[in-house]
Amino acid sequence: MWVTEEAIAAWTAEPRMTRGGQQTYSALAILTALTLKAVFRLALRQTEGLIGSVIRLLGLDLAVPDHSTLSRRAVTLEVPRPRSSPGAEPMHLLVDSTGLKLLGAGEWLHEKHGTTVRRSWRKLHLGMDAGTGTIVASLLTAKDVDDGSQVASLLDQIEGPLASFTGDGAYDQDGVAASIGARHPEAAIIVPPRSNAVPSEMAKTAPTQRDRHLQHITGHGRMAWQIASGYTKRARAETGMARFKQVIGDGLRSHTDERQATEVGVAVHVLNRMLELGRPNSVRIA
């Protein structure tokens, strides 16, 4: 681990020019602490101790944010989001959702005494760039929220045009198609129709994308449609979900909605940063 001179200079918050108390730590310092917390799956007190040890070992003259400060600042922290580069090609978006359990006293009781408790959990919705694997949109909702109802909120987080939208059968809804059409009218919607799906009334004269999917499935079979439409790329979304749970974990340690949203945002930032550092920069020399 290393700390750059720029990070050292930006560790302390800039003087406040408006009314209110002066913050001691910058957003960079809080984000650094929460990043270490996510990577090593630490509690806030453990995070405070780890940062203090690292600063002492590096011989840096920096203050250490305590666990109370980290908890308080997590409510309003703005986590950087990925931005599309100017002139980038339209994105192939993959969407999926998974459950994250809420960690807390119940976990301790289960480990120490084998007590059985009812698990509470929340649903995580992710949007991923199929070309790079970067998570470009994320959303945390209650466990009983329908996947299709969150498409508009995911799309609003994405900059630049879409070439296609790919999701599983849970997104086979008129509202999903309407949300995509309103924001990206040229995007291909690659969602498998349900087994009992029927063509629209305009299928013969002005077929929709869903009608054309149904026609292809009827004539060639569902497996052939998956290959022809590019639906097989959706497996990358499942890989992204598995990577999230393997690296970050399958639970949330925070106890309020705002802190949980920040926890997920930091986790997404961590995974994208790992991808960026691990991706080779290939240059053609001949």
Summarize the structure.
The protein has helices at residues 5-9, 27-40, 44-58, 67-73, 105-113, 151-155, 174-183, 209-220, 222-229, 235-247, 257-278, and strands at residues 91-102, 121-129, 135-142, 162-166, 188-190, 251-252. The chain is of the alpha/beta class. It is elongated, with a radius of gyration of 23 Å.
Question: In whole angstroms, how far apart are the ends?
Answer: 36 Å
Could you please say which CATH topology of the largest domain applies here? Nucleotidyltransferase, domain 5
Radius of gyration: 23 Å
Fraction in beta strands: 5-15%
List the secondary-structure elements in sequence, H or E: HHHHEHEEHEHEHHHEH
pLDDT average, as an integer? 90
- Tally of separate helices: 11
The main β sheet shows up as: 6 strands, mixed
Shape: elongated
Low-confidence stretches: none
- By CATH, the superfamily of the largest domain comes out as Ribonuclease H-like superfamily/Ribonuclease H
Provide tags for this entry.
single chain; Nucleotidyltransferase, domain 5; 286 residues; alpha/beta; six-stranded mixed sheet
Task: Give a topology summary.
Elements (H helix, E strand, L loop, with lengths): L4 H5 L17 H14 L3 H15 L8 H7 L17 E12 L2 H9 L7 E9 L5 E8 L8 H5 L6 E5 L7 H10 L4 E3 L18 H12 L1 H8 L5 H13 L3 E2 L4 H22 L8
Parallel strand pairs: 1-4, 1-6, 4-5
Antiparallel strand pairs: 1-2, 2-3
Helix pairs in contact: 2-3, 2-11, 3-4, 8-9
